[in-house]
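Quick one, T. Sequence first:
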Amino acid sequence: MRSRNPVFSRRGFSRDNGYAGFNTAPQAGGPVVATQGNPYAQPTGNPYAQNPYAQNPYGQQDLQHGAPQAPATTGRMTIDDVIMRTASTLGLLIVAAALSWALLPVDEANISRSYGIGIGAALLGMVLALVQSFKRKASPALILTYAAVEGVFLGVISNIVDTHVANGAAMQAVLGTMAVFAAVLVAYKAGWIRVNRRFYGFVMAAALGFILLMGVNLLFAVFGGGDGLGFRSGPLGIVFGIVGIILGACFLALDFKQVEDGLAYGAPREEAWFAAFGLTLTLVWIYLEFLRLIAIFNSSD
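Structure tokens:
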């Protein structure tokens, strides 16, 4: 069964609740056989069963008579598809962030209005992300709309922190996010990070615990005033900020595994939108944790 977590929806899991491990996946671009471990194939007793995503109905090998196989690659996800969809999603987010930075001033006279628009965009983006996470198929329009409204929120909150807390904080957060992305990608490709079922379970448990603690802290802040339990300010805030960045790095590794498995198993081309969606969610998470961490460091000066 594939993961259907509404916040951290990750695909690429086998049908028997096991993780489609690195050593069990076929080579990217190779023939796709209908097996239990392939989440994009449907097991059947018919020896002529074909890949449900192949365009050629005779693309699957005749397992009984050993007929030559002519796999069809049309319609399958490629790394170029993932790069293009991710670039489109992140590009729209960046453009929306730049426009909101320029058009929604955060001076003393306008900060309340701009902040309200930013918070409204954040809530709308959360709803859109949840809706897409529950959908079985990727919706490009929904994903791009999420990127646009999330960009509005990021532009406003970045401008506020950059103007009133720490000059240059937004650029520092961008550079930190890029550094984490590059480091995780290198570590993943080098085999220093092994994404398996145990890794997935640990990351999900840690992330759920982190979110619960942040939720409790928010409730105390709303009803009790101040900084709540202090999880997002002061020394504890620094600790939780670092933990949040580490969790984001772990989810990047899960994103890379998702893409790798999708390529290896011959996922349909529309799965590239899921990869773009997951990468965007994770990068936004890491950026916000960096921005918060920079704000905490500067507020304690």
